[in-house]
Amino acid sequence: INNLYNPYIGTWKWTEGNRELILTLIKQTKYHYNRGILNYYEDRIVGYYVYKENGIELINTSNDNLNNESFMGVLYSLDCYSDLGGKIRDILKNKFYASSLELLSPTQIRFKGKEEEFLISYTQYEGMPPPEPIYFGNTFPLDMVLTKQ
């Protein structure tokens, strides 16, 4: 209602040496959240990113289904501090990071990520393939300043 998401919408870029991350953020208006006893509508920020090293594309989440939270790579909403809080998925390490986006100026945002402090437990059922391993470390930096393109 107050257009708080609008400054975040668009394409943002971080570069350092031979590494580059391009983050595209899109506003979803009145997304219907319906899980268990929860049933409401909310505005939120979703999107995708491309990560490259030496000009070679290592991660590209642009084909993500932006309506499926379980497999979406980028998801944010406003938190108590008026920054965007949410998650980002590291495809190469097979894990999500809790992260925030802080608006530094109309043309710069700070991305800060951290590994969750718990491990996801998988139950394997007969006939199911084993879960993919989760790797240590992170593919891209967990503290970056991105510039609007």
For this entry, give a set of tags.
149 residues; 9 strands; mainly beta; single chain
Report what the structure shows.
Helices cover 0% and strands 55% of the residues. 17% of the residues are buried. It has an eight-stranded antiparallel β-barrel. A hairpin with a 2-residue loop joins strand 1 and strand 2 (19-35). It is globular and about 50 Å long. The protein is an all-beta fold and 149 residues long.
Report a brief summary of the structure.
With 149 residues, this protein is mostly beta strands. The chain has no helices and nine strands.
The whole-number mean of residue pLDDT values reads: 83
Number of helices: 0
Number of strands: 9
Portion in helices: under 10%
- Largest beta-sheet details: 8 strands, antiparallel, barrel
- The proportion of residues in beta strands is over 45%
State the secondary-structure class: mainly beta
Roughly how many Å is the radius of gyration? 16 Å
What is the element layout, followed by pairings?
Elements: E1 10-16, E2 19-35, E3 38-53, E4 56-60, E5 74-78, E6 84-90, E7 95-105, E8 108-115, E9 143-148
